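User: Could you walk me through two proteins back to back? I'd like the raw sequence and the structure tokens for each, with a short line separating them so I can tell where one ends and the next begins.

Assistant: Of course. Protein one, sequence then structure:
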Amino acid sequence: MEILDILLSASFWAAVIRIASPLIFATMGELICERAGVLNLGIEGIMVAGAFAGWVTVYSGGGLWTGVMMAMAAGMLFGLVHATLTVPFGLSQHVVGLGVTLLATSATYFAYRLALPRVTTPPRIEAFQPLPIPYLSDLPLIGPALFTQTPLTYLAFVLVAVVSVVLYRTPLGLALRAAGENPSAVAAQGLSVTGIRMGAVIVGSGLMAVGGAFLTMSAFNSFFFEMVNGRGWICIALVVFGAWMPGKALLGAVLFGVFDALQIRLQQTALGADVPYQVFLMMPFLLSILALVIMSRRASVPAALMVPFNKGER
């Protein structure tokens, strides 16, 4: 009965959407990279860098949207590093991705200590505030859940629609998908596989960084290094869960949000008094792994994912 009451609560679904929002940004970024044939394991570090870049911009006196743009720029910079090493030079995408994660995390830590050498508690900023949509926010249950969110949440859902349209309704999307499926055919049409893949990684990394910035500018209004907390790796799993399709990946992000919001509320029930809290903390990840196993069996992996392309080679 307690679980049913939780599931029928508008505040629960509002929390689900908030939790899912940064995952949506980062998952769309990873999906763009992988659709073009590049696995970006730098996502975790890029999200940390984006979270810091957005926060420090606002803390230094910049506007909120300026912070979002600076976060995206930071992500695109690390995306350029990743793309340069993996696409034209053909280095291992696994090794480079993990290296970018370490580089971005370490660079962020250095910049944080350089900017705030004596601060033990991260200062707070004035983050994005909920922006209720007139009339829609008054709808029962769905109104407070979907239409009383911050602007970045609305932007996350718009992003899914934009990515879907670009991938499936434009020549650019066709070329990008072909670069991840049959790059030789792209080259035969006179297009640059290297340019398409590098552009996809750079743009995708920028979106990952915005996902990190959501945490500091729309969720916690502060910065600490543990805040990303594995969300980047979850986003890689969500791309597989969604079978490299934006709509299904969105569903996976919301599903993870349900698991995470549910475990938080279960800790506050009578069950939470009898079960160690660590069990609740690992529940979203266990359920996500189970869902991933079920869904990934029918997933169609881009044929050229992680396959370097050298023009003229078969």
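----
Protein two, same layout:
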Amino acid sequence: MKTILLPTDFSDNSLNAIDYAMKMFKNQTCNFYIMNVQRVGSYISDDLMMANPTGVVYDTVVEAAKVSVDKLIAKLVKTYKNEKHEFFSLVDYDNFTDAINQAVINNDVNLIIMGTKGASGLSKKLFGSNTVKVLQHCEVPVLVIPDEYEFTGLQDVAFTTSFQSLYNMQELRLLDEIIAKNSSKLSVLHVVLENSDPKELFRDVDFFNEHFEDVSYKMIETNVQDIFDAIQGYITNNNIKLIAMINKKHSFLETVFVEHQAETFAFNINIPLLVLPKRE
């Protein structure tokens, strides 16, 4: 049984991510925790603060959020009518990342699925700030769903790596499960960045050949500035439905997708991104 955390602020992109989760795990037995995180700063208004002491403000805000989450769960039960799925409501009044991490620990969560608007506007930030923080600090896999992206199967899946560390099946277990349950074809994209050691190029090829049946390899030679275009080109040309990465400190992922997330990149991740934590 999967235990999946679905954070929501009731925005369209968070609701779309929930819809994706319902369809992706349609045939699997799952416990879904629908979670809303509130912060007092979102509710500071003259009327509210003058009418209620701080403790009552807390109770008022949390109770209103609980009502909204319960309504959403009722709608999900009615819409999807899936006996394999059970829903639980969570509301917290805390820092977003701390609340997510606490929910993961308390409920033995296996996976977080959350929505993001992707690159948009003048800043073209790759992810919203909450998404970036979850990717940086959570110890379970995170599946990020772009705004308006619909689930249409997982026939082709890509794993992006710079092969700077050895992998093991514990950290790739979820990817393996997804591929097995969806009969997916796996493409391993080796990204060769500037100053890469060519000796490391195929160090893990034997590992992937041993553990994944339908796997192909593609070498992408690029630099940090052009990496998004290079990966996006492969995604588009090969109809990739999901791209997965390992999140390791000082790795390709953290350097490019997190530390540089505020840079101006002409790139928009328009497919789901699965970020798997590195097991040290």
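The first strand starts at residue 2 and ends at 7.

Let me know if you want the two compared in more detail.
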